[in-house]
Structure prediction request, 1095 residues.
Amino acid sequence: MTDMAHAPEAHAAEAHAHAEEAFIWKYVFSKNHRVIGIQYYVTAMVMALVAGLLAMLIRLQLAWPQRDWGVLAKLFPMGYDVGGGFGVMRPEFYAMLFTMHGTIMVFFVLSTAPVSGFGNILIPLQAGARDMAFPFLNGLSYWTFFVGCVVILSSFFVGAGAAAGGWTAYPPLSALKGAVPGSETGQTFWIIGMVFFIASFTMGGLNFVTTIINLRTKGLTPLRMPMTLWAMFLVAVLGLLAFPALVAACLMLIFDRHFGTSFFLPTGLVLNNVPLLGPDGKTFLHQGGSPLLWQHLFWFLGHPEVYILMLPALGFTSDILVTFARKPLFGYKSMVGALWAIAGLSFIVWGHHMFVSGMNPYLGMAFAVGTILIAVPSAVKVFNWLATLRGARIRFNTPMLWAVGVVSLFISGGLSGVWLAQSAPDIQLHDTMFVAAHFHLIMAGAALFGVFGATSYWFPKMFGRMMNDTLGKAHFWFTFVTYYGTFFPMHYIGIAGHLRRIYDPYQYEFLKPLQPINQLITISALILGSSQILFFVNFFWSAFAGKKATENPWQANGLEWTTASPPPHGNWPGPIPEVHRWPYEYANPDFPKDHVMQHEPLTAAEMEVKAAEGPSRHEH
Amino acid sequence: MGRLQGLLFALATVALVVLATFYFTRPWLPPLKSDRIAIDHAIWLSLVVTGAVFILTNLLLAYFSWRYQDDGRTRAAYWHHNPRLEWSWTLVTALIMCTFLFKALNLWAAVNAEPPADAMLIEVTGQQFAWNVRYPGPDGMLGRTDHLLASQENPIGLDKSDPHAADDVLLLNQLYLPQDRAVRVQVRSMDVIHSFFLPNFRVKQDALPGMTVQIWFTPKETGDFEIACAEHCGLGHYRMRGQVHVVPVAQFDKALADAAVQ
Amino acid sequence: MSTEVLRKPSRPGPHRGGEGGGEPGGDGNGRGGPEVFFDPGRFGLWLFLATLSMMFVGFTSAYMVRRLAPDWTPLRPPGLLWINTAVLLLSSATLEAARRRLRGWNPAGVSPWLTATGALGALFVAGQLAAWRVLAARGYFLSGSPHNSFFYMLSGIHGLHLLVGLVWFAVVLVKARRLAYTPGEADGLGMFATYWHFLTGLWIYLLLLLFVL
Ligand code: HEM
Ligand SMILES: [Cu+2]
Ligand SMILES: [Cu+2]
Prediction:
């Protein structure tokens, strides 16, 4: 398929084709950005169900480690010792659970739903383009992602089970087959799944950047772009520049695992008191590699990756906050500047994951500097949001609740980053539940809340219907309270030294007193998990039977609200609207309406002011 | 109905602030038994400063969401720009961060400084799933190791032909430390990455195969504590546990000798 | 890469971006319509090459770290590599010759030069395989030493990209035979040439990195 198929003649030919064929091309192998976006979104939600289920099992184990779970043993015979009706979880299953939970959540859910999902749905609509720059590549990227999902999921059923070396896959654990059962076939599947994911993300990134740079409608200058569009642009750039390092690392890991090379494997490996000898039986099989090299390559991607999850949520939040505050975004330019600063700095801070790794302490200093600096643009964003709310006229619909939820989580999770950024306190806190609390609040939480907010806000553009507001609010409140209930106490047990990735914490005397807190967390997590049913019910029910949405149900200003809900093929039935102003013109006393849309031409009075001020003094 | 949501959000935020602040003031850190008190101070300072920001920003968020709700009649303030205000909060934040940075770098330099010349040498080698502890013995020199010699009986591959090796003291999962005397610990691994974590001593260092990393600290109080492995290292990671025994310097040699006999 | 990138770049016009949607009446007659700054296809290709370069930056940093270790034992490159390099450089030169014919209103003169490009490219791949065999015959295998590993891996990855280039070449050749490129066109074959020259440059970079520096 090439663009040729879109020529009018091809269109006519298509119309003659069979109905089933049309369905396939329209909804399965579609090249339409909105359909692809929804495909991504729904796939990511299915993956979220899987990863969420894994999380519930992890939590049960942490609260009651030696307990006999008869029912679970029936459901997951591979994970629980069933011999003699003894349903205690196996340690190898636990390692598999947290590895796959992290991998799926970080890459296949929270990079996918906000970026590939909403990016595809929103970029052409907000930029004023008929579609993405390369629609075929876009479809290909979804199906590549789909293959990645299948590979990752199928790894549960191969040989000794899925990968079990953590989502960070540090070698030698992930490279030596005998080190942990998951490092047999499971780790190979993990690598292949990741490579498919990265390939798909790269195709998406090429599309995002090209579309945003090249296909913006007339008048949509950079400083008139909505925050979501800015975030999508930077995320795509981050992905294009950071993921290749992980591809390189994955390839080298494959070579180490299967072809006997020694990129990450040092001389002198002894497994189970038996030296790992080469074919000559006298020298070591692996010679002179460096396990730290993997960590550098992994986190060179890894830190930008955490912002890949985060930046779209920051964009959604700014857009939603403004719409429901009925007030312009405060400090638009500094908001854009902060995004750039965060994106730029994210490339020079990766070593903060390695303060105690054995890396040269001088390097540690350099990374502490970059990391602490990144707190400044993060704080600027929070202050700007607060200033946006001051003097506003807030309407607390569902999307707004999620948006203030993101602000709350960004504050709570960002502040603990300042603790961790100081390399010496990190000695105590590294690899404890404190870090788990930090990143679940700021990365996972803010990204998740951002996705929920975006879903309820842009649902009209996805399905032409409104989501149910009452169900939405119920879902928000259950999620908000239990999210904090689950992750905030992890700070405390983390400071107390509670380790991460640990099958049975109570082997340690000093962790025994923490069991009641862990049980509390687990109960909260179970409620958190079950309340997501509210979302799925609301989502599917509203998609098919929700109230029909009007063009602009929230009285918002962006270009996406100038076309039908859902937009037709090609996004605007007539000409593409031209942009004349920034997207945050609310409550301007010079206008009779309380909001002025981006495509509304300047009024005579505005023209006069502009002429007096010179052509480009004021962007908005 | 609409106004209820804002009120609820404000109340929830206040509740969060109250609960979080209350529980953060509990003594969560494991009791400190080494000279690394500066790390505790840095944690406390972080708590106080970020705690103040946490309380302030959350209270503003709560107040604004309750106070500025749509009344259906009036418009929001048309206020979206104030360079003075924006620059000042950027600079103030930057200043606070620079203070943190300055203190953090100094502390990091102190922690990573050269150990005192009289520091006692100890070697800790991680393996799945145990800690091999080795003391140099009377000659003060650790014997040579060769991983090719590693076996069930000789897990770290000690080269018995080396004269320095004969008096080395080897222990498994038991670490004896002298009170009030600096120790320098050489951390190594035979197989995968482990992490040598002494929660009561504010010590954590990854144990890497193919590399020896040295850290040092001074145990301050006698007693029995725990060694944990902080880096996921396989199925037995959760039980890769050891004991630390801090004994007065005068009794150290005897305690070590007794432990070695067992 | 899809054929999307292979699409013949059409001349930049103010309203190209509407193509994707293809809705009747949607293109080119609005007040708005996209402002095209660069040809999207070319832009996307450059972006892809930037991404690809980042992967090799990753490999380079790994290589540097490893090379500075004390136990480095260098691998002596087989002389064949230099011949292969000359072949690849020649293929880039014939490609430029083909493009010159196109620019000079001589579309019939294009395909011989273009064919030479592909043939030389294929010869290069064959030469690389032969170089591997020479090394293996001398007892230098993939896992023998770090230098061996890097050489086999990097030349292999480069070779795979060149194979993709050869597939693209086949498409371009068929199009050239059908005279699908407009005579006199300044940028005919441009995208393919960009990719091909990139691979030539990449190989020279790898050669310098592995054996000269
Ligand atoms: C104020 C800005 C931030 C600072 C100063 C900061 C600092 C840090 C530091 C120093 C660590 C390493 C802790 C350790 O492993 O010992 C860390 C871990 C982490 N951070 Fe942040 N962070 C910030 C914001 C973010 C954001 C916005 C995200 C996500 C979008 C994020 C996600 C993570 C994740 C996922 C980890 C842990 C990864 C792992 O070890 O598995 N952080 N952060
Ligand atoms: Cu990071
Ligand atoms: Cu461990």
